[in-house]
Design a protein that fits this description.
This protein is an alpha/beta fold and 383 residues long. It is 39% helix and 14% strand. The strands form three sheets. A seven-stranded mixed beta sheet has the order 2-8-7-6-5-3-4, sandwiched between helices. Strands 9-10-13-12 form a four-stranded antiparallel beta sheet. A two-stranded parallel sheet has the order 1-11. The protein is globular. It contains eleven helices and 13 strands. Helix 2 crosses helix 8. Strand 3, helix 5 and strand 4 form a beta-alpha-beta unit. The mean pLDDT is 96.
Length: 383
């Protein structure tokens, strides 16, 4: 059968690494997972209990497209709790994970052929979703001296209809402060560029908290998820906040594309909002893992890293060790039994010289993974 050009997207390499790791485990090997951005913990007990109770009360069916009203109100309350932002719940749209939020945002804001800017290194699916929608991703190379975040100077002369920014970023874990985020948003406002803020790692910070775009302006699309801070990756539940004038537009798209987010996941997510102690205990584990990872990677020989402010990743420059990060990751998996992600996923130009390490799993796994990496590096010689 015929095939569309827009369907010819690149693979999500981390998922390929994950599959290779699964195959190795199926063959009987012990693998330490530092490749995927998935918490080692599950959904909070309160979230699971709420769903169990709901399942005993009757069938779970369709909800309204924008999500359960009580969940939308709960998410609005989170903005008051975290940022002291008063948010009208009517602007909150519950989504099937952040991925559907990106689909809704890109479809609502841009016409086919328009250009959307994104910092590199950055989350690879931005590029592929844009391409699948017949949009053109425009990579904006970020610099180590700016901690791999886009800054105002990077936008000079860039032709784009939209800009997506992530803080904390993936793969870097670095954040933009209020002034830097405001500078980017002001530039977009002044040049009629739609601004999209990916905030799915908010809540996972190890010093100052992250700044939401809604502290600066309501003229933005904000996308978030229950996957990371709330440890609910497989539940596929997230949300977006849009300007009031865009709500009905996005609602119509959501009705036709998704009907509604999963009812069961919405019930669990509502309860998860109140499981603060459990979530903060998880964050304390990540903080410990972060310290172990930074020290351990340096001791192993991965010395060129930008210490992350948030999320659960360390992004390392390995240009002194390899010119082929994909092959290097394969060697680490094969010889050390540690799965890590090549930078090509995040930066198609410079990613051959970088790796991403995730410290989202248990502390014991991080300790074992570091020990294996040290053993691998003792005998490693650059080809």
């Amino acid at each position: 059968m015929r095939q569309s050009q827009r369907g010819a997207v690149d693979p999500f390499i981390v998922m390929d690494v994950m599959e290779a790791a699964r195959a190795a485990e199926a063959a009987g090997r012990s693998i330490i997972h530092m490749e995927v951005g998935q918490p080692g913990t599950g959904a909070a007990q309160g979230a699971r209990d709420a769903l169990t109770a709901a399942m005993g009360q009757g069938a779970l069916g369709y909800t309204v497209a924008l999500g359960l009203p009580e969940l939308r109100a709960g998410i609005a309350g989170l903005y008051k709790r975290w940022y002291d932002v008063e948010l009208d719940p009517s602007r909150v749209i519950v989504t099937t994970g952040s991925s559907s939020g990106f689909l809704l945002a890109f479809t609502s804001l841009f016409d086919a052929g328009e250009k959307v800017g994104l910092g590199e290194p950055g989350y690879p699916s931005y590029r592929q979703i844009l391409r699948a929608l017949s949009l053109t991703p425009v990579g904006i190379p970020t610099r180590a001296e700016n901690r791999l975040q886009p800054v105002l100077d990077d936008l000079a002369g860039v032709d784009m209809s939209g800009l997506i920014v992530a803080s904390p970023g993936n793969p870097s874990g670095t954040m933009l402060d209020h002034a830097a985020l405001k500078a980017l948003m002001d530039h977009c406002r002044d040049h009629d560029i739609a601004f999209i803020s990916d905030e799915i790692y908010h809540g996972l910070h190890y010093g100052d908290r992250a700044v939401t775009a809604l502290e600066i302006s309501d003229d933005a699309y904000v996308i978030n998820s229950f996957s990371k801070y709330f440890s609910m990756t497989g539940w596929r539940i997230g949300w977006m906040v849009v300007p009031q004038s865009h709500v009905r537009r996005v609602e119509r798209l959501a009705q036709n594309m998704f009907i509604c987010p999963p009812h069961a996941s919405q019930i669990a997510a509502l309860a998860a909002l109140d499981c603060i102690d459990e979530m903060e205990a998880n964050r304390a584990v990540y903080a410990k893992n972060r310290a172990l990872m930074i020290e351990g990677l340096r001791e192993a020989g991965f010395t060129k890293i930008a210490p992350p402010d948030g999320a659960f990743y360390v992004y390392a420059d390995v240009s002194e060790l390899t010119d082929d990060s994909l092959k290097f990751c394969s060697m680490i998996l094969g010889q050390a039994g540690v799965a890590v992600t090549p930078g090509l996923d995040f930066d198609p130009v410079r990613g051959k010289h970088t790796l991403r390490f995730s410290y989202a799993r248990s502390t014991a796994e991080i300790e074992e993974g570091i020990a294996r990496l040290k053993g691998f590096m003792v005998g490693y010689i650059k080809p």
